[in-house]
Amino acid sequence: MLTTKGLSKTFKSGAEAVRGLDLHVDPGEIVGFLGPNGAGKTTTMRMLTTLLTPTAGSAAVAGHDLLTDPRAVRRRIGYVSQHGALSPFNPVGEELELQAMLYGLPRAEARARSAGLLAALELTGMEALPGDALSGGQRRRFDIAFGLVHEPALLFLDEPTTGLDPQSRAGLWGHVRALREGGTTIFLTTHYLDEADALCDRIVIIDHGRVVAEGSPAELKSGGRTLDEAFLDITGRSLREDTPA
Ligand SMILES: Nc1ncnc2c1ncn2[C@@H]1O[C@H](COP(=O)(O)OP(=O)(O)OP(=O)(O)O)[C@@H](O)[C@H]1O
After folding, report:
1. CATH assignment of the domain containing 174
2. Which end of the chain is more exposed for a tag (fewer CB within 10 A), N or C?
């Protein structure tokens, strides 16, 4: 579903944000992409979602070549950014239908697709509310609905639960697992090790633009370490340097 070979990004400033990344994600997996601040996660996500051009390497994303056919990649992937996609003012149901129509669905189908997504994400009945009226957890679920409206094979989730209370986080994890059960492959970043532990089939840790460890949560925790201890051993830093864990 996702393979990169030597994927690299050097910015004009000279900053080598990503240095020769080899990634592999199988269909149906939830893979967590973790690293300390400045490790290169966002740069990688932006390359894999076609928003930033790599300076070296190659990648196949959802069955298409990232460099030669980014349009085909875009049709097959969903991307839920940290910042969300909701208008604060317009009724969220209308926004979702519009998004579906932008992907080429006729109005009736767009309506049906939106209704299905809202039901799956437990948002039915909130269609008429503006984005501003939603709680943080509801807003994130709407963001995910936006990312899913064209039924992508591969969904990129950038810090899906940052800023949410524990109950909303746990609820969102249930929805992410349900997506995988429905056949969607998920590649996510998070600043929470408990989230990676609870959700991910596999974790890839990067630091200084390179993969420094990968494995299932159980493999990374071998030797009786917690995932926090493993992360600290591997990178010499905690996952959230700027904020208390
Ligand atoms: N547009 C840019 N121009 C120059 N350097 C950049 C640019 N974007 C990112 N960088 C640098 O590339 C490196 C990786 O940044 P990136 O944002 O990918 O890290 P990150 O792992 O997402 O960090 P965080 O967890 O803090 O969001 C950093 O050193 C950053 O300063």
Report:
1. 3.40.50.300
2. C
Ligand 1, atom 17, lies closest to the CA of 42
Contacts of 222 (CB under 8 A, 6+ apart): none
pTM equals 0.93
Domains contained in the chain, number: 1
Is this complex's ipTM strictly greater than 0.95? Answer: yes
Domain membership of residue 123 (yes or no) is no
- State the distance from the centre of ligand 1 to the C-alpha of 43, rounded, in angstroms: 6
Q: Whose CA is nearest to atom 4 of ligand 1?
A: 11
Instruction: Tell me, in angstroms, the distance from the centre of ligand 1 to residue 245's CA.
Output: 21
Dist. CA 15 → ligand 1 center (Å): 8
Over residues 26-79, the pLDDT tens digits come to: 999 999 999 999 999 999 999 999 999 999 999 999 999 999 999 999 999 999
- Give the pair of three-digit tokens for residue 127: 């269609």
| Residue span of the structural domain in which 26 resides | 2-82+152-228
